[in-house]
Amino acid sequence: MATTSRHKNANWTLPTSGVSYAGAQLAVLMDIRDELQAINRALGCYRIPRALDAMHDLGVEARRRKRLAAKRRQAKK
User: Fold this and answer.
1) Is residue 4 in some structural domain?
2) Is the pLDDT of residue 71 over 80?
3) Contact by Cβ (8 Å): 4, 10
4) Is 30 a member of any domain?
5) Does residue 7 have a pLDDT over 70?
6) Residue 35 backbone dihedrals phi, psi, to 5 degrees
7) Lesser CB count within 10 Å: N end or C end of the chain?
8) Exposed e or buried b for every residue in 27-66, given b needs 16+ CB within 10 A?
9) What does the alpha-carbon distance between residue 14 and residue 51 come to, in Å, rounded to a whole number?
């Protein structure tokens, strides 16, 4: 296991019966690795940064509107 665990994206096979604690840990780590790779692929998509920028702009606009509304309320008093 020590030699194959050093290789990136190696296909590690686990026994189908009598899985040890170390084997269970390895399976969990493999699942975590797969999920992290999926996240990395998604973040590499050109649409994600655009969406994040759009959400930021919406937040900035919402804060600006809130400040203007507060100023209008202060002016009416």
Assistant:
1) no
2) yes
3) yes
4) yes
5) no
6) -65, -40
7) C
8) eeeeeeeeeeeeeeeeeeeeeeeeeeeeeeeeeeeeeeee
9) 40
Domain span at 30: 18-76
- 76 alpha-carbon distance from chain centroid: 46
26-57 tens-digit pLDDT: 878 888 888 888 888 887 777 777 888 888 99
CA distance linking residue 2 with residue 6, whole number of Å? 7
Tokens of 6: 């050093």
Does any domain span residue 42?
A: yes
Indicate whether 6 belongs to any domain.
no
Q: Is 20 helix (H, G, I), strand (E, B) or coil?
A: coil
